[in-house]
């Protein structure tokens, strides 16, 4: 079992992920939203690259059956119901509804991952459950960091390290690439996640927008047990 890490959406190539088990991470905040929304009872999350695609699909649905969610430059899209804050996706608002979702980095990363054998959604909040699922599947894994605007992001990288660290508890003989080993080392040396991510560029952006509550939520470890899966069209999970 081999574990590799891709450090931004710009570095995704079919040669690296085709027929592999892929895990997509965008903890600030797309994958944290997806996991939270599904855990709170939404029917499915359908990711889109553009605002226009999102609104076009919405026309096919009854208005009471969906919510529009997402952001551009970390700010809620005009006319959308919800932003990219996982704290907004409450049971009262999204239970049994479809979430139509578009973000700057996360949904773009998902779109570039469709050649993989399976695509799972991960963040700090469900990392332990993701690690257990990957161990049970026991196939080569590529962990993809969405990054920020095509660049490496410290926050996604330390989450990769957390997942790898959890996997090593079950299988110490896994083959790790150099980048996977580095992610694991970074996590082990920075168990206080918040102190580490304070140095990240996207953290600074979120702080400037007064998104402190989102930051605190997104760095919590393994508070949710579900592992959503993207089938190339929609994201759901099986109990």
UniProtKB/TrEMBL annotation:
Signal peptide: none annotated. Gene3D superfamilies: ComB-like. Its cofactor is Mg(2+). GO terms for molecular function: 2-phosphosulfolactate phosphatase activity; magnesium ion binding; sulfopyruvate decarboxylase activity. It is an enzyme of class 3 (hydrolase). It holds the Pfam family 2-ph_phosp. InterPro entries: ComB-like, ComB-like_sf. It comes from the Bacteria. PANTHER family: 2-PHOSPHOSULFOLACTATE PHOSPHATASE-RELATED. Belongs to the ComB family. This is Probable 2-phosphosulfolactate phosphatase. It comes from Clostridium chromiireducens. The gene is comB.
